[in-house]
Amino acid sequence: YLNEIKDSVVGGFQWATKEGILCGENMRGVKFNIMDVTLHADAIHRGGGQIIPTARRVFYAAYLSATPALQEPMFLVEIQCPETVVGGVYQTISTRRGEVHSEEPISGTPMFCVKAYLPVSESFGFTAALRSETSGQAFPQCVFDHWAAVQGNPLEAGTKAQEILLKI
Description:
It is a single chain. The mean pLDDT is 89. Strands 2-3-1-4 form a four-stranded antiparallel β-sheet, with helices on one face. It is elongated, with a radius of gyration of 23 Å. The two termini are 40 Å apart. It has helices at residues 2-18, 48-65, 86-95, 126-133, 160-167; strands at 71-82, 99-105, 111-119, 139-149. The chain has two domains: 2-65, Ribosomal Protein S5, domain 2 (2-Layer Sandwich), CATH 3.30.230.10; 71-149, Alpha-Beta Plaits. It is of the alpha+beta class. Residues 69-158 form the Elongation factor EFG domain. This is Elongation factor EFG domain-containing protein. One of its GO terms (molecular function) is GTP binding. It is found in: Plastid, Chloroplast.
């Protein structure tokens, strides 16, 4: 019987992972192991109309019973600024959940290049805040870099992940 429903289970998997249960977005980095299947003896009850939605609900339940996590897009931000305002750059980045990962002097100039990761959701108004903090002496460039897991369980009250989930 298993070969009869294979395509339907794959369809349920694709549906579940394309419209994830937390935000309705694609799921990333998930794996499901099907250990056992109990099927109705009558073939009329093993059609795609019964198996696909059931498989989707099973994948959703398995996902929720595991440790679900949200992922958010991250910018790589390169900021060129004089050494005197590097502290203001760090301050602006840290208040927006960003993380500095390198700071290097630009050879032959009094400027520094600070590279950081910044959540895309925190980037709105970032340039204005940075220029305000550094008196207009810092020049940022943002480009998408990767997806990162949001700290905390989105199903637990009071976590940043749940706060983001509730805004969606």
